[in-house]
Amino acid sequence: VFFIVSFIKVNLYFVFFMAKIRIKTTINYSPNFTTYKRNKKNIKYLIFHYTGMRSENQAINRLTNENSKVSCHYFIKRNGSIILMVPEIYEAWHAGKSSWKKDKSLNKKSIGVEISNKGHQFGYQVFSKKQIQSLIRLSKFLIKKYTIRKTKILGHSDVAPNRKKDPGEKFPWENLSKYKIGIWHDINKDILKKLRNKKVSKIEYKKFFKYLSKIGYYLKEKKYTNQKMLIENFQRHFRQRLIDGKVDQECLFIAEKISKLAK
Q1: Active-site residue flag, 91
Q2: Which of 88, 91, 114, 169 is catalytic?
Q3: How confident is the model at residue 225 (pLDDT cuts 50, 70, 90)?
């Protein structure tokens, strides 16, 4: 009975959804969600993922298979069409162990969007134009509905930097920021190029991690479990031209600028 009622609710919700964003959509319901209904006011994060599987069908099957214990609210296919998998009112299982600033277990407070892409393991792809167009429309709809701040629009690698790489360095954060989806710096690219690969002092190195903490990255320990991966994931988001896990003057300057925007 619960699943029948839920399915009816999904369809009613879906009519409203279609009217709002006017894009091709389908329903493929996932059983992987927490059944309590969330308070709309508590939804304050938008988290982007890539699927990281060999094929789109495999990814869809996994997200809708009850044995996988993973899901998302929305899935964006390579052709740009959107699949609704879990209604927003419920908690989808997409972020896992995750933190941002003082918030932990971000599934409870977020909308998860999976974007079809083979990922680093199987041949990382450039996201298609149709995917990004759909992502912009969907994000704008969700941002308005839940009053989501730009600083709380993140990648899986931001909220779980010690274990995840998605959506990766090919994800167009800079372009999305023009639509007020996420934050980006306005530093001149020529200036950044001159700072690239220039060494930082020990004091500046420590400052870099203080900036990361101000931005929102969760730095629980003095010695991070995977420091190199943490740096790489900052670079995947904010310094995409070079992912080397090393702090240089360019990274330091970007981190300082972003930390001021993240207040």
Answers
A1: no
A2: 114
A3: low
